[in-house]
Amino acid sequence: MIDLIIHTDAPAEGILPLPNTTYSSSDAWFTALADMHKAQFAFQRRDLVEDADDARDKYVARQLFRQVAAEGRYSPSDKDDSDQPRFALYSEDLRPANILLDKDDNIIGVIDWEFAYAAPLSFSSCPPWWLLMEEPESWSPGGLAGWQETYEPRLQLFLSALEGVEKDQTSHSSVGEPLSRRMRTSWTTKCWMRNYAARRSWAFDFMWWKHLDEAFFGPNEDQDHKPRLTRLSEAQRNAMEALVQEKLKEDQDTEITVWTGKEAVSHLAKYLL
Hints:
By secondary structure, this protein is mainly alpha-helical.
């Protein structure tokens, strides 16, 4: 259901437009992505929060994500020997259902490129979630731990097959570290979790509080926002409380909201602190 319309016929100065620049590092890329997470939270109206504390959890998680990204602590190194950042074409929807084969099982094409974009190279090193055909945040029983336990044998089989292909490619060493090795590293270091959370807004909060927050900020017994409030400025805490009340009110509002560019910029500026 559409409940938000933004008219951008008038020039909007400042922070509303989507990023349209290049990035000197994956840290800068993740920082921009964190701002987009915050913008989505500010503008989505219904079906976003369960109650006031859930709204606070979501607000604080996005602020902390941006903090660690801006500090250069979120991403692994994505630089080559020349110390230049490495980005690659990445497709969110690259999976068997979108790969075309001929009658001899040769790949002849790949479809559904609308979710492709330039992303840090570490995205391409993440093991494919579709080996289990069920997304981590949707798995039951056992949550993510259960998903990982069921997924790992399939991953090892997939990597063994990939290693066999790599051994047959005599020139693979000329293009850097083999993909199978990079995927193993991503899995064992849990880098894939950071990338998965960052690129999937609907899984972000689940990943952040259950599996990422303590890695950056230490113990958090209840896995929620309360012990992290001291990491926010007074202005951010005040903005959070105003936004919490706004989200609770919006969840009951059935009207479509129409924004002009300038109004949207003004609204967003209140929360991108």
